[in-house]
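Hello again,

I reread your note about wanting to compare the complex against the isolated chains. To keep things tidy I'm splitting this into two emails, and this first one only covers the full assembly. Below are the input lines as submitted, including protein chains and any nucleic acid or small-molecule components. They are followed by the predicted structure of everything together. The single-chain runs will come separately.
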Amino acid sequence: MKIAFTSGKGGTGKTTVATNLAYFLAKNGRQITYWDCDVEEPNGYLFFDLEEHYRKSVTIPIPTVNMDACDLCGKCGDFCEYGAIVTVGKKVLTFPELCHGCGGCSLICPKDAILEFPREIGEVIHLSYKGNPNLKFIYGLLNLGEPMAAPIIKKVKHLSNSSDTTIIDSPPGTSCPVIESVKGSDFVVLVTEPTPFGLNDLQLAIEMVEALKLPFGVIINQVGLGDDRVHHYCSERNIPILLEIPYSRQIAELYSRGVLFLTKLPHYEWMFQSFIQSIELRMT
Amino acid sequence: MKEIVVISGKGGTGKTTIVSSFAALSKHAVIADCDVDAADLHLLLNPNVQNSEPFIGGKVAEIIPESCTQCGECENFCRFDAISEKVNGGTISYAVDPISCEGCGVCVAVCPSECIRFESQERGELFVSSTKYGPMVHARLGIAEENSGKLVSLVRAQAKSIAKEKNYELIIIDGSPGVGCPVISSITGAYAVLIITEPTITGVHDMERAVGLAEHFNIPTYLCINKCDINSEITEEIVKRSKFLAVTVLGQIHYDPIITEAQIHAVPVVEYYQNSVSKEITAVWDSLYGNICADKTN
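Full-complex prediction:
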């Protein structure tokens, strides 16, 4: 089973919930794989004492032009939708950061003058939790200055063991990196907060999961802060609220130091127990 | 004309809260919301939309089933796994998943029966508005769409043309979280970046990546520590780290529930209530503005 955590708005508590849930389930004997798909700012790994197994470079194929064969016809530039290759005077310029690696220029070139070479845009790191071998951890890291997160997210999600429970931590927002992260999951959990920003971005996130036709539910974090418009919105639309986490200075303080709050506040474990049960109930 | 971009790396550190207050304090600036896939600034600035136009994004492929010969070349050549074969009874058909399609056009090039439609589509909306504090440019990216970077560029271009036309010297930009496509698009060529961070280990981690990104593009960078009292030890560490990173900390802002209250009342906090938090935000603005004005180059 794959459960994705996403939010629309940033900083609502995706990582807090995802990491604590992974810890809780692994502690209860489940095989867990944690995919941190927020490859621009991955930070789930900061909450676990992890052992690194290996790193893999993520590359995309970019064009190199053999000028001996090129006759400057310009067809590659006309074809490229991203402006990543262009013929200017007697030169063909390439802009590697704009290239999506589709291979179109090489395919279209009548002189077979374009070869593709891999260019690194980031890496994927495979680890395991020293505190519990049940928890495997994978995260991606986008190189600074690179715009495209999606190819790295694809690689994070590449390997999975279907018998494991997979927890997916996604980036905030509603555009392509988020879609890439939650696509293919069995259930999407939208983490929000009871504020106007939280509500606005929750509505956007709901539109997104509805477009992907995935089952979903909501977690309201920091209940007690703000107002009750998120609660009203969910009940009017029959959207299940799977979990409510009270606003707590103690949880915020533990989070700030990179401590999983369940390790210090075990009386919250029942919340995660009933949360996972309510998801599983919805899945069957 | 100077563009100041507020980013954070980590989401939820207070970018929009602070930008809305800057809008109220600046008196003479164009405001741009470049967080196009989860825009919130309008909830505090209550813009009056004067003009809106559709955002035409990248192309998407679509197979016309009537002319398709089911050769499968499109699926073979698509590197984004956007085309799949469907077997329905005895018949095979091919379809493009518009969400996975990157709009590269390779399928169109390899299709021997020219049965793939490939057109630009409307993928969002761009708004030019007026607010109590000055002109505002904002946008809405269609749900599950790509090209957020392209829309961010359009928002910036529109803000610049308004600034030029109406003689504004400053553009204040609300950025998005992360360090990828939309963030790169919102900071390249800008005059300065202000990073809002918070004293949590994730906030620090993400701030350092945001600093690295700004450095990569050679943009002068300033720092502001929001919710500084959540963990004062980490706040001290950030101040120390900032010297090593060669970025100036412009100020610290305490955690205060009044910020959420102002959000519920849909006004910038500096307009909502004059207390210590408003004063701290004002001090950060004065310091930022002082730094910008001290530099007479453009």
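For quick reference: Chain A touches chain B through 58 residues (CB under 8 Å).

B.
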